[in-house]
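We were asked to recover a plausible sequence for a given structure. The inputs and outputs are reproduced exactly as logged, with field labels preserved.

PROBLEM: sequence recovery
POSITIONS: 364
GIVEN STRUCTURE:
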């Protein structure tokens, strides 16, 4: 009985001990889990702080880079003096070297011929960053260049206008601008005795050029067009010479035509002169005697002098009639009736051969 009691107590003690051990192990496990969670939370916090510091550092770097880029872009902006330097540079390579040294890159290049402007080699310059600043240079060879500069800095745009006023340029009506019309509205236009500078607020755009050059070019174009028109509409002169012959060898009426217009009808005139007015081109010169005609084709050009040789061929031809005569002895004789028939002859001698030369060679 005593052994049974002791055995029971040992069993109870073992159960109690095992239970206490399990509770202790569970508590240790819980403690470890909590420690791991704390470590994980701390690691997350540190990672978040590190990420935040990195983001802040990147943001700061970006801000610093932006500040540097803005500073660099400001350094690249052209002053009024630099704009005029490009306007007056007569060498495209020198212009390219100047802009490249200031950090600009050539974006495109093409040859353009715009209305009422000389043909130009146009280059488009932009910053490497893709900033909207832009420079257009119209290189026009023997003329001063046209320069258009677009700045992204409002304060720089305003400063350029202040600078041009300080150079004693006078404001003029924008309608007087020789470059930009229509949709390209010029807000302010300034001139001195030679140059024009315009401002377009919408695009922060400034342009400069030598308006005296453009005026001269347009006057020259107008003069050349006028002279070309006058040359194209200058009349030609036609001389028709006929060999001198006794009047009995000439018909009573000898008519000269230019196309369908009579220009001469006198037998006695050995020289006929006609003014050929535009439209010129190929026309027919003809001569008629009693329905018989001779003609030549002449292509008339403005201001040309043309010579035609004229002649008359005469011969007796049978009329188909007869004539009866009686001599003193009463003998009748029947003969065929003939008459003198004239045929015109025309020969084109050439253009601008000279009257004296023609007269010496052909007429006499």
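RECOVERED SEQUENCE:
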């Amino acid at each position: 009985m005593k052994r049974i009691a002791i055995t029971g107590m040992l069993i109870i003690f073992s159960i109690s001990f095992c239970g206490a051990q399990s509770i202790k192990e569970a508590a240790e496990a819980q403690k470890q889990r909590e420690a791991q969670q704390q470590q994980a939370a701390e690691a997350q916090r540190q990672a978040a702080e590190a990420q935040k510091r990195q983001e802040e550092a990147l943001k700061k770097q970006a801000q610093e880079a932006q500040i540097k880029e803005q500073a660099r872009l400001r350094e690249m902006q052209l002053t009024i003096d630099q704009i005029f330097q490009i306007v007056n540079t007569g060498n495209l390579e020198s212009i390219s070297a100047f802009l490249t040294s200031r950090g600009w890159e050539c974006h495109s290049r093409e040859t353009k011929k715009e209305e009422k402007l000389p043909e130009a080699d146009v280059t488009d310059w932009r910053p490497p960053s893709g900033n909207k600043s832009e420079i257009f240079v119209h290189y026009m060879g023997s003329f001063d260049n046209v320069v258009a500069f677009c700045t992204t800095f409002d304060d720089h745009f305003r400063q350029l206008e202040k600078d041009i006023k300080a150079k004693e340029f006078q404001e003029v009506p924008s309608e007087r601008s020789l470059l930009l019309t229509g949709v390209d509205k010029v807000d302010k236009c300034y001139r001195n005795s030679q140059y024009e500078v315009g401002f377009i607020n919408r695009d922060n755009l400034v342009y400069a050029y030598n308006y005296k050059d453009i005026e001269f070019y347009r006057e020259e174009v107008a003069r050349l067009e006028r002279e070309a028109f006058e040359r194209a509409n200058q009349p030609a002169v036609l001389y028709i010479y006929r060999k001198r012959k006794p009047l009995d060898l000439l018909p009573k009426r000898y008519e000269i035509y230019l196309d369908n217009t009579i220009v001469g009808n006198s037998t006695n005139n050995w020289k006929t002169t006609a003014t050929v007015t535009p439209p010129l081109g190929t026309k027919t010169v003809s001569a008629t005697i009693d329905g018989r005609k001779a003609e030549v084709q002449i292509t008339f050009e403005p201001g040309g002098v043309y010579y035609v040789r004229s002649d008359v061929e005469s011969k007796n031809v049978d009329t188909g009639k007869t004539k009866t005569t009686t001599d003193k002895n009463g003998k009748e004789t029947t003969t065929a009736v003939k008459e003198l028939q004239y045929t015109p002859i025309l020969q084109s001698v050439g253009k601008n051969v000279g009257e004296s030369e023609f007269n010496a060679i052909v007429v006499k």
